[in-house]
Amino acid sequence: MEARDATAGAFVSSDGDEAPATKNAASKASKAQTKSRMEQIFGFKKEDLSSWHNLVCLLNRPTDSASLGIFRCLFGLLMVIDVTQERGLSHLDYKYLDGAPVCRFPLLNFLEPLPLDWMYLVYLVLFLGSLGIMLGCFYRLSCLMFISTYWYIFFLDKTAWNNHSYLYGLIGFQLTLMNGNRYWSLDGLRRPSIRNAHVPLWNYTLLRTQIFIVYFIAGIKKLDADWVEGYSMSYLAHHWLFDPFKAILPVELVNLLVVHGGGLVLDLTAGYLLFFDATRPYAFFFVSYFHCMNSQLFSIGMFSYTMLATSPLFCYPDWPRRFFSHFPSFLKPVLPLTTPELQPSTSCVYNEVSNLSGDQQERPAHSKLSKPRLKHKLAAIFTLLYIAEQFFLPYSHFITQGYNNWTNGLYGYSWDMMVHSRSHQHVKITYKDGKTGAIGYLNPGVFTHSRRWKDHGDMLKQYASCLSHLLPRYNVTDPEIYFDIWVSINERFQQRIFDPRVDIVKADWSPFRPNPWLMPLLVDLSPWRTKFQEIEGSLDNQTEIVFIADFPGLHLENFVSEDLGNTSIQVLQGQVNVEIVEEKKNYTLQTSETMKVPAGAYHKVYTVSEDPSCYMYVYVNTTEAALLENFTKLFELQERVRNGTETEPLPPELQPLIAPNDDDEAEVNATDPIVRLFLKRQRRMKEVKKRREAGLLERLERFAGKKYYTIRRGFLMTAIAMRNLAVGLPPLEQLTREVEFANMKGPQDEGNQKDLLKEEVGHGEL
User: Fold this and answer.
1) Catalytic residue check, 686
2) Which residues span the membrane (predicted)?
């Protein structure tokens, strides 16, 4: 709702004078004094809610279209950028390979992608729709082009679902029903009758409520015990963005108070703080800071910038007029209108003169009375139903029970953003020939580019069904597929998420019934996480540890790599039986007992207690430890040679160590593999340091270059596809040359940059 009249404040006339505001200042002040306290705070009176007629009039109250027009433009611009990035136009040919044996995960199994060239056409329509929204050109058609293609792409691939992609689709749907082209649009130039016209208040009500829901429900979801106790996103506290906080607080308190506590408080309060005049400036600061940090912490595309673009919606709707009135007069032809002269619109209900804003109250042309018509009542009904539905959906999971996997909601519309973090320790796919009984194993993720199938029962069912259709090509008849997937959620024990004894191909699954082969989360073992931290804190840097929990009657089959020396199993709770496969020996372990397991061999750990067992693997990566020790010795030798304290001549295999730092040939010519790895590591560290110490201009140039080549490839591949649809495929040699030209990259390869950054921060997620 409006917090006050749409055009309150100083107005600027068409010739740049402030005479209208000065002329009517006294009358406005007197009228403002007659407003009730509720009207001053909320923008409407108690009487506006006293009857259905008054509510319809309120929701259709004439409101300045300026803020809506600016948001429409910003949203369209961000979606134009999003098409080539998170929607995937730049790598569409890798995502939709014609004829390739690929397993896909649509919302409905009958949904399939079109042939590749036609998918490029779908994305072109999406791009043109986004561009049309931004420019306000053929606005309604552009919105329809956007939402039809966007939701098709969205439903086509559940592995790409997230809350912010869902939000984009919702905003696109809302804009389709709104009058977003009444301000700063090409439609306004073509049709003067709609230019600078009022829009009904429900246009703002929907958008503001939607953004409030995004913040508030996300805050409610963060009241989860794992978030409150600091287990959901604990790794974030180690990011360099939190260094200012770590200067005054230990990293544990930064994690608990800043990352988790700050995120919870902001989400719970942001919607309220943005609504009220007194708190809005503070909300702008904290919300902007929050989203700017998120843009650096996570790879979430345009979401942070979209949320920044929604914040001005909570300001007075006339803010763009007052803002752009301060620009030089010679820019007025290309800037939005600053005149307070608004046209009446049939989309609004003009009940009383006082419903109009500012000096418009004295304009008879706008003061005519009108009664709510059917379209006004339908708009009010839609607004109320839509808001109720948006509050209901995040808690509708008692309906869609088949989707719930250790979270209380679907991946998409739950607004449970960043509440759960997962790590996978062990994934095994076993197939069995239904005719011969032969057993084999598949590489996890074979025939698919996605990794999210490991966490969701509906995707696992789709994946198993797909594999059952593909394996007969490889002489596997009527295959049975079994999955043994171990997951840790929010730093708990690694445990099975699905029953490994169930053939998923024949398993029953329904979106409306609980998943029968989903193993329960062992929440009773959650208090062990405090003990985990104590145990890990007592270990040296070379010792690794993995915590395991398993169900009675099941066993873990594991292989210890030869690189892992001194590997042992220690039971924390329950009773297990350890079978050394090659030795054909069994050992029973009780609570607190430990045994070593041989490297380079398989072993099985059976849970034989009545309750779930808990145990941990403790091991040292001896190969890595030896390599680091050799690196240390090589570095010390290199330093002695460079400062002249090394008097002995170096053997030939160590000669590359004395080459200049920028000599890449030394790495190539190194005959000793350890020396080659050492020099390669040094070169990477040098490049990382150079990137970190780069100036602002160099960073911007690198960023712009990366975006340029990404966008360039997307549009060149689209042009090739459109040519193919129009005139047919060219000769293969020509097509190969065109694709090679589209694949051209900048001086630095993007993949190498990502590898460098992962080594730099120590977290693949960052």
Assistant:
1) no
2) 120-153, 165-184, 253-276
Distance CA 73, CA 186 (A): 11
Output DSSP code: residue 611: S
| 181-209 pLDDT tens trace | 999 999 999 999 999 999 999 999 999 99
HSE-CB for 463 with a 13 A CA cutoff: 26
> For 96-123, what is each residue's pLDDT tens digit?
887 788 999 999 999 999 999 999 999 9
- Distance, in Å, from the CA atom of 162 to the CA atom of 415, rounded to the nearest integer, reads 9
At residue 254 the predicted structure's pLDDT band, cuts being 50, 70 and 90, is: very high
Please report where in the chains the tokens 């940059």 appear, as a residue. Answer: 753
> For all residues of the chain together, what is the average pLDDT?
87
Contacts of 123 (CB under 8 A, 6+ apart): 83, 87, 89, 92, 149, 153, 718
**pLDDT in the model for residue 333:** 84
Go through 597-632 and write b for each residue having 16 or more CB atoms within 10 A of its CB, e for each that does not: bebeeebebbbebeebbbbbbbbbbbeeeeeeeebe
Strands 613-621, 564-573: parallel, antiparallel or unpaired by DSSP? antiparallel
Task: Write down the pTM of the prediction.
Answer: 0.87
The backbone torsions φ and ψ at residue 579, rounded to the nearest 5 degrees and listed phi first, read: -110, 120
What DSSP element (H or E) covers 547? strand 543-550
Phi, psi of 620 (to 5 degrees): -125, 130
Say how many C-beta atoms besides its own lie within 10 A of residue 374's C-beta: 7
Residue bearing the bigger pLDDT, 720 or 30: 720
What whole-number distance in Å separates Cα of residue 663 and Cα of residue 28? Answer: 75
Distance, in Å, from the CA atom of 547 to the CA atom of 522, rounded to the nearest integer, reads 13
- Give the residue carrying structure tokens 């072109």: 124
Q: 580: exposed, middle or buried (C-beta count within 10 Å: 0-12, 13-18, 19+)? A: middle
DSSP code of residue 497: S
Of 28, 35, 46, 222, which residue is the catalytic one? Answer: 222
**Residue 420 near residue 489 (C-beta atoms within 8 A):** yes
